[in-house]
Write a structure and sequence with these properties.
The structure is a homotetramer. Chain A is α/β, with parallel strands linked by helices. Chain A folds into 2 domains: 90 residues, Aspartate Aminotransferase, domain 1 (Alpha-Beta Complex); 240 residues, Type I PLP-dependent aspartate aminotransferase-like (Major domain) (Aspartate Aminotransferase, domain 2), CATH 3.40.640.10. The first copy, chain A, is 39% helix and 18% strand. Chain A has 14 helices and 13 strands. Chain A has a 7-stranded mixed β-sheet with strand order 2-8-7-6-5-3-4, with helices on both faces. In chain A, β9 and β10 form a beta hairpin. In chain A, α6 runs parallel beside α7. Chains in contact: A-B, A-C, A-D, B-C, B-D, C-D. At the A-B interface, α1, α3 and α10 of A face α1, α3 and α10 of B.
Chain lengths: 350, 350, 350, 350
């Protein structure tokens, strides 16, 4: 069976594992006060081109989102996000569990629209009823989005401008950031993100690490007393050096981007194959998540050789599906998958 | 420099690392639905002698305590614990952050007293004012305690009897459980714990794993809908098989207890050395945390060759300190430490 | 200046004030353990036709919604409600502040659609991803809705059927319940509501009381340990008898409905006047909130003699507005308002 | 039956009721934006001698404490209070329900000790472990305390000095403030409190109002965005003018203190009677709560003519009890009580 369910089906990149083994019996103090963590922070800040910034490591994405959002917001504030955002749909109410409302805006190819953010904030303060409502205290975006799409530099700059004008921090969830940065045609670099977002995180779990996410901020004053908050959220890893070692490795010799490139190439191969064989895209994604519409009989046939995700309930005739690749996807598996996809003449008669 | 600061200064036991490497590039589904996790659960339930129980894996201790306690309590309830308990002192208010009060009782060598628990619950329901107070909804203990001490089987049985009579779940924090079970004279087995506690966790982070804690319950009905709660608490590891692989290894051929034995032997060597050289115990602990009272000049001298923890503010003449060993402590380091401890004639003139 | 801003601009109905004065210096025990509260509960349960039900009194609407919803839900659950529901928009995030997500469905004339509720719940449990999402744990409706509209008996019965089939409690926010029950053509009685909803509240603040809301449930087992939760939410009034006295009075000789009838008649007079003078309805409401579309020049002119609420941002040519009446609205004021409304020929050329 | 159970057994002072009746059918805007509320705030700020301060009204004590404490603290902070403080014992975990820990210090006649506060804060920041603990973010005191006692001016000044030095706000719960200020020998005025505390509240519920507490702060910047937080806590009264009218009346012609004086006189009469008849004080209180130790047979006999509270579980031979008076206590009732107290020769043989 071939597996394209998700980008966290393997362990870590061999280079990362190698460093974990080499350092395994060394003794270091806990909670990220070790030298590996210091070095990892340094490497990341350099890659981001940030002076005076800060980096915090946590274990997983939901944990990171919850802790950062709780750190950025005051009690009466909520977070603006699209209806399809991970925090709104797939974190089991973690944001609300810390007392904050997710204020939803429509998604456009998975993205939030700067103009709609601006209008929301302006309308909000229109009259005195705002004191009975949840104030928009920050904006959450993901890049790549949950639908695999990417912001353009222009879109990010406009969003950043709107947020800074309204004094509302902009936070970017980079669970799959590597795959976004490794796309050939993107005009967004990690330095752009570091410059335009107030806080963002670099996803490790899906891009080469066993686990781990690196929160980066160029404005540490937005997250005062963040260490006890990390602890309070159960997000402070005892053997913090495990995060340091992994991120030091990933941010040495550009490994993080290099391995993401592979994931993108594998995804593009799948995309090309489906398109050339007559299928339609469900969403046009340039990253490692690919979405197609499959006639149900073909879906069933493919499901015998490969695992992938249905993207919504099964339709009457056809169903949207998602195939995910990663740094670890094997070329052989891609070939086998492509061979298993039947060519269709036309979908017009569905 | 020799290090006796904590029991989480190294990575994982070599056997555990070996399995992580061997399985590194295998593909498994996420969130603990893999075969390694299934096997680990099976091994643990067998070791505990539980039929019909359940096991849940999480990453760290604070996260585990918070999620379990939040799962066991209703909104109007709090958790009874000693003043020195980890949840009351060193979890940055994680329990309260989920809305629950830690109701404190005095500690006796770090332990809670069954009779005092019973009196607290009886007094609580004495008159109608209880509706204005936080109901005792569960009891939290740690074994070994934060002071390195152990419950006797009789104490545990009495506590269990009191809790079951009052229909209040008993939860045991086993962050250092291995070290408790490996003590030669203890009459408490893991089967006793599984039988007498309603929920407990087996600590991996401090006993051979890179990270990870295994929550075990013989009464799964006490934790209904626990998976979404784990997710909500940010405690659901994407690559769940990492926890499964580690615990499967630790619970194969009794590895968990074997390696804990080593930690205990090392601790006993330190204890014997300090005692024979004329020092007094601050707390008489049979486990891998050892507490002594050091004259300040000797403390300063020892601190030049070894790191250890001051257990409270520095006193005028003498100060309590803590030395911690683990499965990874090297015999050479123990020898070197012992050699560095000067013999004192008497502490009478302090 | 005439005032049609809201239905809480005056104190209490004179009959209610009379009873508060008569009993003012009597001594009673606190927290609702007095005889007036007992009598009020009895009167309400009789009016509702409930045997074995329970009544709880609280001070205000947001407080009541938050406490009830927190009482009904488990930690991993959220509440289904329309996008326009009071809990989603105008309670400053009170529901989220207790850790629960408001799961939104579209509104249809302010109402939730039973079929959409059923589909939401069915889809939710479609596959295993539900453990990563917020479970729909209850349904919230308001009657009258925030837009002044009413459920029909058929709609309520269908909603109740869907909820009971899914074992999801149905909760009705009756902040303006009196005005809903007093509408001539409604086929929904308070007994229907008591029978079809699992929990609901009878609004006092807007219907004759100084303040106060009466939570009624025919299934008290859904709100176990509710007294300490009320206290924890700061919703337990020390001089609880104030709530008892007011509701006893309102539920004696049908006073609650009688005075609501007056509010409805006043509202119908306004509606008729605007319609006959050529204006259009913004929403067709049969209750004490009336919504019209006013050309901006007429809006400005009317605003000189009467206060009312703009229902959304001011439009380019015309703006929706809301006029509210109550048990206390004076016929003279209605006449004066009607006289001030100019007749318009046509709005076609806008 | 005579009643000395609590100081909230009657309605409001007749002067307050008179004003509520006179204004009952006036129309005012909601949520405290009316002229009565403005006037009340003005009167209170004048009485407190505060320029540039702010006043907020809420309904009850638990609600007020929870909202203020949640407003003052950041997420990682807790509130220092005595073990006997109302927030620690009798608010059903309301503080914890908003995510904050109550950090307890010993009580000394119900009071917190400035020196112990200072030591707690100093010790807290002693080493880096503080990031794993709940930071002391404010100090809570009550005046009178839960045991009827009063701080001296010197004690308050010392506490204020310690708090300001540590930049930790000092908050005073004045649920019974009137009774504290009306004590003959106290050297603490309301102006002292306003000067030395950062935030405090003036209790209305127990001192002449139907309900209502007035939060006063000379440093409004400590409670930014407080209105939405009040709403979020369900503490924003729709008909806010009810609070305004009551407090305007109580703070006109010194009514608040005058009526409290009566309560104190009644309490002193009871105290004198018990003492002169040979009983011992359980606590020596100068305010409207009086605590005695009663032999059980006498307790039983008195309980036939008067209601009062047992202060703890019934002892083997004798039991502490509490008698409470208020502005509404009738002189006749005091006389009747005193007549019912038997003289005892001596308690030596108990």
């Amino acid at each position: 069976m071939l597996h394209f369910d998700s980008d966290y089906m393997e362990g870590a990149h061999p280079e990362v594992m190698k460093r974990l083994i080499e350092t395994n019996l060394e003794q270091t103090p806990g909670y990220g006060t070790d030298i590996y963590t210091a070095k990892a922070k340094d490497n990341i800040l350099k890659a981001c081109g940030i002076d005076g910034g800060k980096v915090y490591f946590m274990v997983g994405g939901t944990q990171t989102n919850t802790t950062v959002i709780d750190g950025l917001l005051r009690r009466h504030e909520g977070v603006l996000a699209t209806t399809t955002s991970h925090i709104n749909v797939h974190e089991a109410g973690a944001i609300e569990a810390t007392g904050h409302k997710v204020l939803t805006l429509p998604q456009h190819d998975g993205k939030i629209c700067a103009e709609e953010v601006e209008k929301y904030i302006t309308d909000f303060y229109r009259d005195d009823t705002f004191e009975h409502m949840v104030a928009p205290g920050m904006v959450y975006i993901s890049h790549p989005t949950e639908l695999g799409t990417l912001y353009t530099l222009e879109e990010l700059e406009e969003l950043s401008r709107v947020c800074r004008k309204a004094k509302v921090p902009l936070y970017l969830d980079g669970a799959r950031l590597g795959y976004g940065l490794a796309v050939e045609n993107t005009d967004v670099t990690i330095k752009d993100i570091a410059r335009l977002c107030d806080v963002f995180y670099i996803g490790g779990t899906k891009v080469g690490a066993l686990f781990g996410e690196a929160v980066v901020t160029s404005r540490p004053e937005l997250l005062p007393h963040f260490m006890p908050l990390i602890k309070q959220h159960g997000a402070l890893l005892a053997k913090g050096r495990l995060l340091g070692i992994q991120f030091e490795t990933l941010f040495t010799d550009n490994l993080y981007i290099k391995i993401a490139h592979h994931g993108i190439q594998m995804a593009m191969n799948i995309k090309e194959a489906f398109l050339s064989k007559g299928y339609s895209l469900y969403i046009d994604s340039p990253t490692n998540q690919q979405f197609f519409v499959l006639p149900n009989d073909i879906l069933d046939r493919l499901a015998e050789v490969a695992s992938f995700e249905m993207w919504g309930p099964k339709g009457e005739y056809e169903t949207p599906v998602r195939f995910v690749t990663s740094w670890a996807t094997k070329e052989n598996d891609i070939e086998a998958l492509i061979n298993a996809i039947p060519t269709i003449e036309s979908t017009l008669d569905l």
